[in-house]
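Quick one, tokens below. Sequence please?
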């Protein structure tokens, strides 16, 4: 099945064992960072093989790295290699912050409006269709289920940052304009229960976030940059993950 419109895939990857990259990181690192955050399991080639097998309709596939692309990827004309210097402003480089990398993906040259973002630990395991990611109108297929943020780690702090901005810009009463986005028979039972439990709160308490490949619209990022450039400026200064970072989930939270 061919998509009605072009859909690109983007995957980010880092080789944490690369001595040159490790030396560069050491120049900026002030506090210990868990090594598993940069671990490569040697499965990147398998990731691409699954894309060719299970999503043959994909338009372009971009591999985002810090000048670390494997030789086999460089020689495969189906793969477009994108280095950080190609799309992240020089003022924010080098960066070892995955949130910064993700929030600037919209700057990738040649990236189409509809794209799906993968971490390198998100694998296709069966045939997927364009409609698994975008509906026929071009809207991303995502859950709008509500959830209360549990303050357990830095990721939850980042999600809290997202909600500060969402609450500043969007009145929760807007939920009533299209409740099917948040409460839907196609969502899981547990997600609908979470949403119901969060309905009484007058402010947005959070959204349920899956660790899955996320469909995005490039125009979401462009709009956010035009209306709230401080989001990108604030994050860009953080070479490593920071409690005051926003996450790529912010886009769907705001514009879904």
């Amino acid at each position: 099945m061919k998509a009605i419109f072009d859909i690109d895939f983007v995957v980010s990857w880092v080789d944490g064992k690369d001595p040159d990259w490790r030396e560069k990181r050491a120049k900026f690192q002030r506090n210990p960072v868990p090594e598993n955050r940069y671990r490569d399991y040697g499965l990147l080639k398998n990731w691409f093989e699954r894309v060719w097998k299970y999503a043959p309709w994909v338009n372009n596939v971009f591999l985002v790295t810090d000048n670390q692309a494997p030789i086999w990827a460089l020689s495969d004309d189906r793969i477009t290699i994108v280095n950080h210097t190609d799309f992240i402003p020089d003022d924010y480089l080098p960066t070892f912050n995955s949130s910064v990398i993700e929030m600037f993906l919209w700057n990738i040259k040649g990236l189409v409006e509809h794209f799906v973002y993968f971490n390198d630990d998100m694998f296709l395991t069966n045939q997927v269709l364009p409609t698994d990611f975008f509906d026929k109108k071009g809207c991303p297929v995502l859950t709008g289920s509500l959830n209360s943020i549990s303050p357990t780690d830095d990721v939850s702090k980042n999600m809290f940052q997202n909600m500060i901005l969402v609450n500043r810009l969007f009145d929760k009463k807007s939920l009533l304009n299209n409740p099917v986005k948040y409460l839907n028979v196609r969502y899981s039972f547990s997600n609908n229960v979470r949403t119901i439990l969060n309905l009484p709160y007058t402010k947005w308490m959070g959204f349920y976030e899956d660790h899955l490949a996320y469909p995005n619209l490039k125009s979401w990022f462009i709009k956010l940059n035009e209306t709230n450039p401080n989001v990108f400026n604030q994050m860009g200064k953080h070479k490593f993950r920071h409690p005051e970072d926003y996450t790529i989930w912010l886009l769907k939270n705001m514009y879904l």
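The chain has a mean pLDDT of 93. The radius of gyration is 19 Å.
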